[in-house]
Amino acid sequence: MNITILGAGAMGSLFGGLLAESGQQVTLLDINDAHLAAIQRDGLLLATDHGERRIRGLNACRPEQASGHPELLLVFTKTLHTDSALRSVAGHIAGHTRVLTLQNGLGNAEALSRHVAPQQVLIGMTNWPADLLGPGQVHSHGQGMVRVLALDEAERQASAEVAAVLDAAGLNCAVDPEVWTSIWKKVAFNAALNSLCAATGCTVGQLGAAPEGVALARAIVMEVVAVAGSQGIVLDAQRCLDSVAFAMDNHRGHKPSMLQDVLAGRPTEIGAINGQVVARAREAGVAVPHTETLLGLLRLIEQRAAV
């Protein structure tokens, strides 16, 4: 399959590398010139539980340099850059191109549908871990999975074809008719851990070591569960709480991506996570005081970095 990865950070590079390794034709698109140059020169240095190796044969360029029309466009940009990124590759997307979002948060299907026909859109989530250690270097240790589904029910064959390609690359991918449940579960996890770590500067382990951190995370998870229920999505609250507790116990040194953005003075994805939860809560009349407070705090932190 001819596949383009839009947004070749840690996750995009991991997926692109594994797909290329499995025999797919992969192009990585990004604006990180040093990362692109390293891949063009030396290939992608990928370290996983299966060992460290260099993956060569990847095409890597800036979006405006993209050519041809892929069968699959996999979107991994930060949510706040989705519209500009898709505009930059408008000529790269054909009528037969399937566009899959595995981005964080909510509102991604709507964002993609502003640029391509809804029949071309696939939605999904992934919990694979990945870290960009430097130009052309990605590490991923531990296991993950991918769940996908076509936005249009008439396009379910496309779901199966894309899932098969990702699964063959070792990404543990399956079609999930309940994909919105998976997406909301990840939103609950990120709304709790990402926002709290970003606002406090704590690692996941430091957050879990404080009773107040645990209590705040639990409160946010339960608020997201309530909002999901107002949208017709029934989440298993205990499973959501258990996933947060597992991360606190087993990923102690991890700095979530939102905290990394704050430390680097970059805008965060708070709008697509807590912001989307708050917006839906207001429409449904659901009280989410903790989630709303964290949204306000992160907006203030972003404003501080901008001035």
UniProtKB/TrEMBL annotation:
GO molecular function terms listed in the Swiss-Prot or TrEMBL record: 2-dehydropantoate 2-reductase activity; NADP binding
Enumerate the spans annotated as Ketopantoate reductase N-terminal domain. 3-148
EC numbers on record: 1.1.1.169
Which terms in the GO cellular component ontology are assigned? cytoplasm
**Can you tell which superkingdom this protein's organism belongs to?**
Bacteria
Write one Pfam family the protein is assigned to: ApbA
* A GO biological process held by the record: pantothenate biosynthetic process
* InterPro entries, per database record: 6-PGluconate_DH-like_C_sf (IPR008927), 6PGD_dom2 (IPR013328), ApbA (IPR003710), Ketopantoate_reductase (IPR050838), KPA_reductase (IPR013752), KPR_N (IPR013332), NAD(P)-bd_dom_sf (IPR036291)
* First and last residue of the signal peptide: none
Catalytic class of the enzyme: oxidoreductase
Catalytic function, reaction form: (R)-pantoate + NADP(+) = 2-dehydropantoate + NADPH + H(+)
What Gene3D superfamilies does the record point to?
A: N-(1-d-carboxylethyl)-l-norvaline Dehydrogenase, domain 2, NAD(P)-binding Rossmann-like Domain
Domain spans labelled Ketopantoate reductase C-terminal? 179-302
Q: Which UniProt keywords apply?
A: NADP, Oxidoreductase, Pantothenate biosynthesis
Q: In which pathway does it act?
A: Cofactor biosynthesis; (R)-pantothenate biosynthesis; (R)-pantoate from 3-methyl-2-oxobutanoate: step 2/2
- NCBIfam families hit by this protein: apbA_panE
Q: Which family does it belong to?
A: Belongs to the ketopantoate reductase family.
Describe the function of this protein: Catalyzes the NADPH-dependent reduction of ketopantoate into pantoic acid.
> What protein is this chain from?
2-dehydropantoate 2-reductase
